[in-house]
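tool_log.txt
---
The assistant was asked to compare two proteins side by side. It first ran the structure predictor on the initial sequence, then on the second. Raw inputs and outputs are pasted verbatim so the downstream comparison step can read them without reformatting.
(1)
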Amino acid sequence: GFLYEKKNEESRAEKAYFEALRINEKDSDVWYNLSRLFLKTREFEKSEDAILKTIQYDENHSSAWNDLGLMYADRGKYKRALSYFKKAIKIDEKETIYMLNLACTYDDLEDYQNAEKTYYRVLKLDKDYVDAWYNLGVLYQNKIQNYAMAISSFQQVLKLNNKDIDALNHLGNIYQNNLDKVEDAIQTYHRAIKINTDDYLAFYNLSFLLIAKQNNWNEAESLFKSSKIDQDFQDTYALLKMLFEYHNQNLGLAKSYLLNALDYIGNTLHDDSKDDWWRTGAIVSKMGYGQHFTEVLEESGYDIIMRPYYEAIKAYDEKDADLYLNTVAAEVREP
């Protein structure tokens, strides 16, 4: 069965595994291999049944408990997932991936104190575990808002992999959004672009910086045009296009790009591009187009769907949008 899997012959692999079970129905390893095969073929109910059979015949099968945890985490049942990861760790307390999954689940449950502690437990087992340092950096940046510790964590990532452009983009965003260290942010984004000229995120982040912090529209638009559209960040692309049309006083085109961005996100802001919407709202307000922007939100029903965001943009018009763009205080960045 395993050899058939390697050849991507899933149907023959399944038959071979069941042949093995006819010989020994209690072979936990065969049941476990079946569960992984069913995951590969996206037969999730069968995969869970096979995992439960694995545990039935070997309650100390740590990988099975870990996979069961992943299944429940994927369904958003984090408390159940937590218990399964803990069982896996009790069996094999030195397996870093089990500990990492436990930390991520605490994060999903918004139990940031335990998430932080558990990431450090991972690093105690393996001080060079890049994913643990990276996740810790994101936790400090976005949830705990300890930017010094976030910077330290991302710098550890870069010590282990100096070409990690995701870590560089996070660092650049901290310098830009939270610490108002514009030159540090610019250098960090350029470092990411130098590593990978197709790194659309660095292009987008630097474009926002040039507009918001330096009012350098020409360089921002030139930089933006040299970037590539990424399917995962179509809303950010559309928002930047909208800003350039506002700058050129083309309100009709600006509206169409805003509608494209809204259509892409559906009913909620996406975590990966949420900050771009907050940046955009403040910039639009600062440009004097806040009313037009909110009118488009009203016309498309997003004054209701994204009420907190809509109210924040309205508030920007009444206050000073520069407060958002330059503050280090998180409470000003979110409604």
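(2)
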Amino acid sequence: LILGYLKRDSIQLSNLSWLLVLVALGSLVEFANRSQVASLANRISLVAVSALAGSLLYLIWSAIEVSNKSISVHSNIVGWSISAIVPVALIGVRRRWLTSGEVPLQQVRTELLSATLRSNLASLAVLVIWKLDVVLVEAARGFDELGLYSTAVAVAEMVMVAAIAVRSAMLAHHAEPDAVLVPRLARVSRVALAGASLIGVAVAVVGSLLMPIVFGAEYGEARWALVLLIPGVVALVSHFPLFDFLIARGYTRELTVLGGSALALNLIGNVVLLQFFNFNAASVVSTLTYALVLGGCVRMFAKHGSLNAREVLLIGADDLRMVRSLVPIGRRAPR
């Protein structure tokens, strides 16, 4: 934001546009906080409807702008800002969700703020990695390769949808005792890793075939960046439930060190390799970085729950039977 604001004259953005960007970012942060509170209160459907409403509004806004041939950076920012504010207004947060029994609301807010400030350092370090390589590709390789790499990143982000669903579904269970939650979370981790891997393979195959068709023949060069990035996205998706558990169990310092180390590795790796290789190097560095994050989370979780890595990562026959029991295909409907 700071770099963009300093260059605002060259990209012809007004101060009002930057104000809208700040409002939108604040709204997104607020929605993230409210959605977690709603998820803890088992209001996941409300979170989904609110988010979808914002996305639908942005889609309609963009379609109208394109049809009128009036789309611009400023108009896009206006639509994006509105679509970020609407979900916050829709989701709301009821007072009874935030308190239980005789616990004062102010105490809940204070403890939540304290935990947020500490835990966000770890999560922010991990999430910065997702965009840091884009900035480094631009600096080291120029705008042509930036366009190709950004396309690969945008397509790979489709795998992230799985993380939102799994993470939200598990939030309501984090108050359970470890004896119940650890085995359940280990199973969720195994199934999520297998499921994200299947989705990742599908996105890699379909995305590689469609990118030249949708974006143009020259974007066919981005297919290898997508293929190399997908394992890293799968690792990123898979670490979220474990990360939340560890944060709730007081592993803030360890996760901050892990996230900071991964961020440093990503920065150094990209700065060095992009001097000698094209944008595909950024995909390799990101994948290795997120594999490090997942590995660290698995190690801490397994040690806490007296498990081995295989029990956290590798799906088994019992897991497949459980998944099969949840799928109604092939089963007779009750009379």
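---
observation on (2): The chain is about 80% helix and 0% strand. The chain has a mean pLDDT of 78.
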